[in-house]
Amino acid sequence: MFSSVDPYKNQHYADLKSACIKSKTLFEDPEFPATNASLFYRRPPPGLVEWKRPGISNEPHLFVEGISSHDLNQGVVGNCWFVAACSCLALKPHLWKKVIPDSDEQEWDPKHPENYAGIFHFQFWVFGQWVDVVVDDRLPTINGELIYCHSKFNNEFWSALLEKAYAKLSGCYESLEGGNTGDAVVDFSGAVSEVINLEEEAYYKDQKKQDQLFEDLLKVYDRGGIISCSIKASPHEIEMRMANGLVKGHAYSITAVKRVRLGHGLLAYFKNETIPLIRMRNPWGKTEWKGAWSDSSEEWTKVGDTERGNLGITVEDDGEFWMSFSDWCKNFTDTDVCRLINTALISIHKTWHESMHFGSWTKHAEPLFNRCGGCANHKQTFLQNPQYLFDVTKEVDEVLISLQQRDMKIHRQIGQGENLTIGFSVFKVELNRKYRLHDILTQQCVETSTYINARTVFKRCMLPMGRYIIIPTTFKPQILGEYMIRVFTDVDSGCRELTEDKPRAGCCASFLGYPQAVSHVYVHGAEGLQNQDSSGGADPYVIISCEGHSVQSTVQRDTLEPEFKTSGIFYRKKPRKPICVEVWNRNAVKDQFMGQVVLSGLVKDTTEPQRLQLRKQGRQMADEMPGTISLRIITSNQLTDM
């Protein structure tokens, strides 16, 4: 996940710091100056702003008593989402040490003040690439107080400087108003973000779904993932305090997911009774949940002293509190789950193979070259979108797909900072498809993501063995934009973009021949096959062959009425040469022929589904064999028809 780092705006931290020390000057960042343009584009802060260096306090430090999720509090800008992400970051040393590189070297050194140059740098994962962002140490204040993100210690500055670097990436501080915690976590880590709508899925009503969600979140948390949550709010309810102590339209960081043991002493261990609890933090550093399992609630009397000590229960209004998982599902409406996907070659945990591609939705007058066709509602243009092919080579495999558009916050200053509404569909296609899909014939849409104006859309799929195409789209056609698509599978999926519409006419085509027609063959299944073993069954599979090329289905175990659901596409140089569909039985010694059908595959032939009698091979091919096969074949002289 960690790769090379690019300097943002071509500013090299080491060179700039060295030059400042040599000239005995403090760094002033020309790319993010101490002016109003760096503060706001529309609404100024509430007071006279003065930019000050951390000399405003005695003995400034990056970290005071280490880094903690309790270090930081939200300022006047409505960026609780960013502060919540920072709280999560503080809990993960392997992440914050990447985001805040060389923290010891960057720390103030009172013994060598001559080495201080007023320059810091932070690293963010921006659209698939780690970027190093340099800032000076001038921070905006009103009446001597920091007005944005700040620590509970007045001489600790890591959070304020990190926020300044993130504001620089976004254009100005005001551009950080209103955002998504999951997006910030992705920018801190390169994680994969999934948004779960707790309200829509109604987890609070379904105990089985609730238990499964808890297990999923527990696994994410234990493996270093980052989770946050919020409660939906209408515009006039943003950051409105509710009677139960929770705040609407406000991001909370989840700081623990635990099964807490109930009972006291040895009895607790023998009974092994637990309750699922979740701990979270309000970025305000105050205002907590008042219900069951809150700081001083009577429920804690059910938990032994040792267990309470392990959980670090504190009875103070510090913004951190526990809830039962069922109450959490009832009260919160959305959660952002950021998984740190393990792509290491050697690991004790599950590893994934990642395939990452960058692309754009672009406009072209010629339909074959247009790449902004909109979602599947727009049937005439949908397949003009970019297409990515991948294979599932296991019997069934979990596939993670993340579609991310380029961050738009930097464009808020010119009134164009809104995300596009994006999503994607996944189609199961022919086993031998190599070229772009031009028509949906028998190909099945197996997954469709939600379409939402979020930076990232994510989908987890369980897919059977086969070949698939992902089609990322905007909701409406003719909308332009950039995207990044990431596909995670258990083994290499061979994921690649399909750019060719049909086979190329090479220099040898004049004597080797070039396809004159294209045929799509779909075999649904067979019925009434002949018994092949002593148990009265068979293990059939189907082979579709044309001009020396073939596709083969998976073996269907112990059945005489198999469903193959297998298809192939054939670019035919000799359209009068027939297509053969054979059914075979898998046998440990030698596979047994169970029958075939021979198809002329002419353009004039029926394109409707057919049920055909199986026949013998060779000179006896006129003779029938037990069973029928259900299939559909479509042929066209236009190679880009399918």
From TrEMBL:
InterPro entries: C2_Calpain, C2_dom, C2_domain_sf, C2_III, Calpain_cysteine_protease, Calpain_domain_III, Calpain_III, Calpain_III_sf. It holds the Pfam family C2. GO terms for molecular function: calcium-dependent cysteine-type endopeptidase activity. The active site is at residues 80, 250, 282. Keywords: Hydrolase, Protease, Thiol protease. Residues 26-341 form the Calpain catalytic domain. The keyword RNA-binding does not apply. GO terms for biological process: proteolysis. One of its GO terms (cellular component) is cytoplasm. Residues 499-616 form the C2 domain. Belongs to the peptidase C2 family. This is Calpain 6. The gene is CAPN6.
